Task: inverse folding
C-alpha cells in the first residue's frame, strides 16, 4: 500500500536522498577506519572526509580549509558564538543576536552569559527582519560577534545579513549567520553573505542527521568548545562521524546543483497552497507575505483556533505540519519569532507552519489546503478556544 | 479505515493505570489517541520527575509507541493554575481543606480533554480511573458507579462530572482490581508495572507540603494564631492555618502531653481548636453547598433522601439522611456521628455503588451541641 500521508514539515527535517545514502554506505561498511589514524584504514576514511569538505566548501563558495565539521547546526552555532566569545572576551565580552534567531543561537548566547559575557538582542520589524538602525546602535567595539540568521525557520523571512555584516565589521566584530534553513532553497555564498562564520546542517537538505558544518573565514579564530583531540584544526575535537560527513558533502553538492529549480518548484507549491487556503478560509493571515522569504515556507495565523489543535487534527488525517516553535513542542509558549514581530501572544497561538519539500506535489498542496480549511472551520464552529 | 468502534482520547500519565486503560481500549477495537496533559511549566524543577511532568510524557509516549497509537502532549498549566491551584489556595486561606482532585477532574482533565476531543473529532475520552459508567444512553442520564475494586475506587473524585461528560467517558479499569491491572501491565511489558502508586502526586511539593507551596506560589497571606484547647487556653503559636486540617493529629508541632486533634479552624481569628477528647472531633452531620446531581437524582424540596455519604477519599460511606433547604444547601444527618468533617472537602452521596451527586462541606454539625 502506498503512503497516502503528506509530509509538509521540511523545515523540521527532510528525508534522506537515496544518492546521499549511497555515498554514506562505504563509510558504514568497509571504510570503517578512524580518519585520524595514520595507517591505510585511517587514510581511506580520511579521504572520505576530505572529499566531503571540498564539496561543502564548493557549495558555499568557501575554501576547504575554512570548513569545520560538527554534529549539526546547533553545534556549529555554539562554536560560532561561544567560540568567538572565548577567543575575544578580554576586550570584547559581548555578543549581539537578533530576536528571531533559532534556539541554537539563543541557547549559545545564554551560555555566553553564563560564562560571564553579556548578550544584547537586536529587534526585528513586523516582517521579522532585523532592524539595522537598532543593530548599529547595539554593536560596538566591545562586541565579539554578531549573529543574524540567513532565513528564519518559523516564518521564512530573509535577513539582511550582508548589511548586518557591514555593521559588525565596522565595529571590528565577527559576523555569524545561521544559514541552516537557507541552504538548498536559495544561494548560500559566504562572500555574498559577507559573513565570517556560517552554520549549515545536513538533515535540512536531504542529508543525514548528526552532521553539520561551520564555515570559519580564514583569519577568524574562535576557540574550540568541544575539547579533546586535534581534529578539525583544533576547532572541534572528537572522532569524525565519517558516514554522516560523507552524506553532508553529497547533500551539499546536490543542493548547490539543484537549488534554483527546487526553489521555483517550492515557490509554486507554497503560492498554490496559500491561495487555496485564503480562498477557502476567512480569518487567516499569511505572515510576512509581502516580505522576501524562503520559497517553501508558509506561516499562517488563524483566528479563533489554536495552531496546536489544528496541527494534531491534521496529523490524525495523515498531514504533517508544525506550530512553528518546534524546539519547544511541549510548551504552549507562543513562538518567540512571532512575539518579536509584534504579534500578541494570544494571536501567535493560532500559528501554523507549513514547509514544502522536493517530493511534494500540487495535488498534495491542494489537499492540505482543503483539509486545513475543513479542520479549522469545524473547530471554529464546535468549540470555543481552549481555556475560554 | 472506519472499522473501529469509535475514536477515543486516552489520558495517559505514564503510570500503570492509564497505560493499561489505553491498552484495553486498543484491544477492544477503538481507535485510540494517547494524550498526556502537562500541568506544570517545563521550567518547574519539580516537573521533571513528576507524575504529570515532562518525564511522565516521555513514559506515556513510550507506552503509546508499544501500543502503536499516536501520542500528543498538551500543556494545560494555565488551566491547572487557574481552575485547580488558585481555588485550592483560596480554600486554605479560609481555613478549609480543599479537594483539588475533584476540580482537576471536572475542569481540567475531562473538561479540557472533551474540548480537545471535539476539535479532533473524537467521540470518547478515557482515563485510568477506577469507576464505572453504566446505562450510558439512559434517558435520565448515565449512571456513575464505584469501581469494583473497593480499595481503589475513585468515584469520589468524579462526582462533579456532568451527565453530558459522563456519556462520553470510558473507564476501562472500572471492572478490574489493582492486582489484575498490574498483571495486565506485566503482560504488556510495560516498564512501569511495578511502580508505586502516584495518587495525589500532582499535589506533592518538595518543600513544606502542598499548602505551603501554594502560599509561596500565590504570595498568599500567612494567617497566624494559636492552638486553643478545650478549656479555652492558648497553647502556643502555630505555623499558619493553611498547614492544618480538621481531624489532623500528627505534625501539630507542639506537645500537648496527650493525643490531640484539630477540631476547628477559625480563619477570622487564626485560632486552631485542639482537643484530646475524641468526642469533640465527632459531628452528627454537615451542611453541604454547591450541590450537583447526576441526571434526575436530586431529591425534591421537603423530601428527605436516605443514602450513604462519603466525606473524604479514604472514608467508608455511611448511612445518612439528606434534605435540601430553601437556600439550595443540603443538611446531612449521619446515622452515627462521624469524625473529622472538614469544611472544603467534597461530600459524595451514594445509593449502593451508584453516585447520586455531591457537594462541598460548608460546615459540620457538632455532635456535642444541639442542632442550630
Result:
Amino acid at each position: 500500500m502506498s503512503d497516502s500521508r503528506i509530509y509538509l514539515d521540511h523545515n523540521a527535517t527532510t528525508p534522506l536522498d537515496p544518492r546521499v545514502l549511497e555515498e554514506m554506505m562505504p563509510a558504514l561498511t568497509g571504510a570503517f577506519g578512524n580518519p585520524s589514524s595514520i595507517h591505510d584504514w585511517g587514510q581511506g576514511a580520511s579521504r572520505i572526509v576530505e572529499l566531503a569538505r571540498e564539496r561543502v566548501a564548493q557549495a558555499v563558495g568557501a575554501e576547504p580549509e575554512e570548513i569545520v565539521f560538527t554534529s549539526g547546526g546547533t553545534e556549529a552555532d555554539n562554536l560560532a558564538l561561544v567560540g568567538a566569545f572565548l577567543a575575544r572576551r578580554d576586550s570584547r565580552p559581548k555578543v549581539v543576536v537578533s530576536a528571531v534567531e533559532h534556539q541554537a543561537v539563543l541557547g549559545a548566547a545564554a551560555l555566553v552569559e553564563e560564562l560571564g559575557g553579556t548578550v544584547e538582542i537586536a529587534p526585528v520589524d513586523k516582517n521579522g527582519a532585523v532592524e539595522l538602525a537598532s543593530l548599529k546602535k547595539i554593536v560596538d567595539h566591545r562586541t565579539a560577534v554578531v549573529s543574524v540568521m540567513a532565513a528564519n525557520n518559523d516564518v521564512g523571512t530573509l535577513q539582511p545579513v550582508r548589511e548586518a555584516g557591514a555593521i559588525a565589521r565596522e565595529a571590528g566584530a565577527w559576523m555569524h549567520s545561521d544559514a541552516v534553513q537557507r541552504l538548498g532553497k536559495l544561494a548560500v555564498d559566504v562572500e555574498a553573505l559577507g559573513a565570517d562564520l556560517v552554520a549549515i546542517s545536513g538533515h535540512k537538505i536531504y542529508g543525514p542527521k548528526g552532521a553539520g558544518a561551520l564555515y570559519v573565514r580564514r583569519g577568524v579564530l574562535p576557540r574550540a568548545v568541544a575539547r579533546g583531540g586535534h581534529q578539525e584544526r583544533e576547532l572541534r575535537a572528537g572522532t569524525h562521524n565519517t558516514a554522516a560527513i560523507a552524506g553532508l558533502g553529497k547533500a551539499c553538492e546536490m543542493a548547490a546543483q539543484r537549488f534554483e529549480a527546487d526553489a521555483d518548484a517550492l515557490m509554486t507549491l507554497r503560492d498554490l497552497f496559500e491561495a487555496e487556503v485564503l480562498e477557502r478560509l476567512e480569518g487567516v493571515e499569511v505572515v510576512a507575505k509581502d516580505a522576501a522569504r524562503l520559497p517553501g515556507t508558509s506561516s499562517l495565523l488563524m483566528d479563533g483556533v489554536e495552531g496546536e489543535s489544528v496541527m494534531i487534527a491534521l496529523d490524525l488525517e495523515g498531514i504533517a505540519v508544525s506550530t512553528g516553535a518546534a524546539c519547544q513542542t511541549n510548551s504552549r509558549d507562543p513562538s518567540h519569532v512571532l512575539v518579536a514581530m509584534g504579534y500578541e501572544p494570544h494571536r501567535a497561538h493560532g500559528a501554523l507552519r507549513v514547509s514544502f519539500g522536493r517530493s511534494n506535489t500540487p495535488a498534495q498542496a491542494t489537499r492540505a489546503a482543503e483539509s486545513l480549511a475543513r479542520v479549522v472551520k469545524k473547530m471554529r464552529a464546535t468549540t470555543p478556544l481552549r481555556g475560554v | 479505515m472506519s472499522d473501529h468502534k469509535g475514536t477515543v482520547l486516552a489520558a495517559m500519565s505514564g503510570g500503570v493505570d492509564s497505560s493499561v486503560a489505553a491498552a484495553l481500549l486498543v484491544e477492544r477495537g477503538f481507535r485510540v489517541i494517547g494524550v498526556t496533559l502537562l500541568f506544570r511549566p517545563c521550567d518547574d524543577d519539580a516537573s521533571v520527575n513528576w507524575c504529570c511532568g515532562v518525564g511522565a510524557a516521555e513514559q506515556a509516549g513510550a507506552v503509546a509507541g508499544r501500543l502503536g497509537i499516536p501520542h500528543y502532549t498538551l500543556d494545560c498549566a494555565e488551566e491547572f493554575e487557574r481552575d485547580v491551584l488558585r481555588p485550592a489556595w483560596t480554600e486554605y486561606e479560609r481555613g478549609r481543606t480543599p479537594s483539588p482532585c475533584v476540580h482537576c477532574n471536572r475542569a481540567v482533565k475531562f473538561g479540557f480533554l472533551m474540548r480537545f476531543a471535539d476539535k479532533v473529532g473524537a467521540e470518547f475520552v478515557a482515563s485510568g480511573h477506577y469507576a464505572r459508567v453504566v446505562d450510558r444512553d439512559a434517558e435520565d442520564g448515565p449512571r456513575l458507579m464505584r469501581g469494583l475494586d473497593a480499595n481503589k475506587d475513585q468515584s469520589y473524585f468524579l462526582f462533579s462530572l456532568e451527565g453530558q461528560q459522563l456519556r462520553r467517558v470510558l473507564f476501562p479499569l472500572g471492572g478490574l482490581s489493582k492486582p489484575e491491572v498490574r498483571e495486565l501491565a506485566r503482560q504488556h511489558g510495560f516498564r512501569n508495572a511495578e511502580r508505586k502508586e502516584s495518587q495525589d502526586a500532582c499535589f506533592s511539593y518538595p518543600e513544606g507540603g502542598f499548602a505551603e507551596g501554594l502560599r509561596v506560589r500565590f504570595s498568599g497571606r500567612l494567617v497566624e494564631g494559636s492552638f486553643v484547647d478545650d478549656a479555652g487556653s492558648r497553647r502556643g503559636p502555630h505555623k499558619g492555618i493553611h498547614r492544618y486540617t480538621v481531624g489532623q493529629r500528627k505534625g501539630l508541632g507542639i506537645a500537648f502531653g496527650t493525643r490531640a486533634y484539630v477540631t476547628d479552624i477559625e480563619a477570622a481569628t487564626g485560632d486552631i481548636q485542639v482537643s484530646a477528647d475524641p468526642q469533640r472531633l465527632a459531628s452528627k452531620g454537615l451542611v453541604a453547598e454547591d450541590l450537583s446531581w447526576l441526571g434526575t437524582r436530586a431529591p425534591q424540596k421537603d423530601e428527605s433522601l436516605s443514602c450513604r455519604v462519603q466525606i473524604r477519599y479514604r472514608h467508608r460511606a455511611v448511612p445518612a439522611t439528606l434534605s435540601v433547604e430553601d437556600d439550595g444547601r443540603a443538611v446531612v444527618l449521619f446515622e452515627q456521628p462521624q469524625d473529622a468533617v472538614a469544611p472544603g472537602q467534597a461530600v459524595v452521596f451514594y445509593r449502593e455503588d451508584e453516585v447520586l451527586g455531591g457537594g462541598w462541606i460548608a460546615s459540620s454539625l457538632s455532635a456535642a451541641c444541639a442542632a442550630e
About this structure: Chain A has a mean pLDDT of 94. The two ends of chain A are 43 Å apart (CA to CA). The CA atoms of residues 94 and 143 of chain A lie 5 Å apart. The longest helix of chain A spans residues 242-280.
